Amino acid sequence: MEPISVKLPPAVRRKLAAEASRRNVAQSIIVRESIERALADSRNGKEPASCADLAGELIGVIRSGKKDSATNKALLEGAMIQSDRRGSKRRR
Prior knowledge:
This protein has about 90 residues and is mainly alpha-helical. It is about 55% helix and about 0% strand. Helix 1 packs across helix 2 (about 25-45). It is elongated, with a radius of gyration of 23 Å.
């Protein structure tokens, strides 16, 4: 194998060292596995996980009592007006 140099932020380096210690393997093995997994995912056409993907089954678990809150135009407009009245600042 050919050597490569990688610069890591201190926090990532600590996490890498902790994982290597936990698994009782060299840090280079974890780095190699991570790179191989990332390259395999990119070849399979996988995109980075979206917020919805990460939230998974948590989306929609809280019930508002309104079945059409995501598609009802009147409810959406009301929520937008209410948000505007709260004084939400717009970024420029």
